[in-house]
From TrEMBL:
The lineage of its organism: Bacteria, Bacillati, Bacillota, Negativicutes, Selenomonadales. GO terms for molecular function: glucose-1-phosphate adenylyltransferase activity. Residues 282-333 form the Glucose-1-phosphate adenylyltransferase/Bifunctional protein GlmU-like C-terminal hexapeptide domain. This is Glucose-1-phosphate adenylyltransferase. It comes from the Bacteria. PROSITE patterns: ADP_GLC_PYROPHOSPH_1, ADP_GLC_PYROPHOSPH_3. Keywords: ATP-binding, Carbohydrate metabolism, Glycogen biosynthesis, Glycogen metabolism, Nucleotide-binding, Nucleotidyltransferase, Transferase. InterPro entries: ADP-Glc_PPase (IPR011831), ADP_Glu_pyroP_CS (IPR005836), GlmU/GlgC-like_hexapep (IPR056818), NTP_transferase_dom (IPR005835), Nucleotide-diphossugar_trans (IPR029044), Trimer_LpxA-like_sf (IPR011004). It comes from Sporomusa sphaeroides DSM 2875.
Amino acid sequence: MKRAQIIALVLAGGAGTRLAQLTKSIAKPAVPFAGSYRLIDFTLSNCCNSQLDTIGVLMPRNPFSLPDTIGQSTFQAQIYPLHPVSWEQGGYSGTANAVYANIPFIEQFNPDYVLITSGDHVYKMDYRNLLLFHRERNADATIAVSPVPWSQTSRFGIVSAAADGAIKEFNEKPLHAGSNLASMGVYVFSWPQLKQQLEADAVDGNSCHDFGRNIIPAMMSQAKRLFVYSFSGYWRDVGTVEALYSAQMDLLQNPELLSLQDPQWPIYSLETAPTNKSSVYSNVNRSIIFAGAHISSQATIKDAIVMTGARIGPGSFVERAIIGPYAVLETGSIVRGGEPGYPPVAVIGENLVVSANMVHSY
C-alpha cells in the first residue's frame, strides 16, 4: 500500500434507535436527507473536498452501498468498507473498539495522523485546516468543537479550554455542564499516540471502549497534549428525529446556512435516485418532497418531509411529520405532530401503510 500522511475513518455504526422507525431496516448514515442525499454523503464529501484520498468506513450491522471512489476528475478518494470480523460475536463494542479492530488496516498505510469522524452529522469542514492546527500545536489529539444551546449540552461531550485552545476539562454528556462547547465527534490523532491508547484500552475490562467515555479521559489523565479546534460553520448532529427534521427545515428556510449547490465545495450524492420524478397534485407548503414521491389530489402537506417513493392518498393531511421511504398513506389519513397531545415530529417509517380515516402521530 502507498503510504498516506493521514487517513480518515468514518464511524458509520450505532443502533440508530433515536431515529425510531426510520432506521428499522437501514443504517443511520444511509437515512435520506434534503431531497437527494444520505447523511453520510456530507462526511464523505468533506473528505473528498479536503483531498483525503484514503477513507475507511466502519460499517454498521445494516450495511449500505458505497462507491469504490468519489471525487472530481482531478482527484479521487478510495473508500474501504470495513466490516467487523463477526456479527455473531456482537460486532464492534464501541467507537474505540471499532478503530482498534482495524489497526491492521491503518498500519498498511503507515500514517502520521488519523482523522476520525461520524457518518451521521450534517456540516462542511475542510479537514486540512484541522490537521494544520493539530500539527502547529504538536498535539497528541485535537477535537473539533461547536457551541450548542445550553439546554442540549447533556447530549454531547462538553469541553472547557484555555485561551490557547488546550483542553482543561472534558465531560461526556454531563447533567450540569460548565461550558457549551460540544465535541463534534471529529478528531485528529497522532497515530503512534492513538495506537498506544487503543491497545491499552482494549485490555481494560472496565472500559466501554468509547472515545468520549474512555480514550479522551485517559489521555487527559496522562497530561497528553489535547486541544480544541473551534468550528464556526453550520453543524448538526442529526441523531434524533427532532434534529433530523429541524436540520432539513433549516436548509429549506435558510439555504444560505449550508449551500448544497456550492461548486467550490460540492456535496456528492451517493444515493441512486429513482428514475421517476416526484408527482404533486395538491397543496404543499414549506415541505421537502423527495424524488419518486407521489402526492394525490386534495391532500395537504405542511412543514413536512416526504421521502423517496412515499405515496400520499387523496384527502390526506400531513403536518410537521416525516414520511419514510415508500410509506403509503391511504385516502383520508391524518399524520401530524407539534401540537398538544402529539409528538414534536410525527414519523411514518419505511414501507409502512397508514390506514384511511385514522389519526397517526407516532
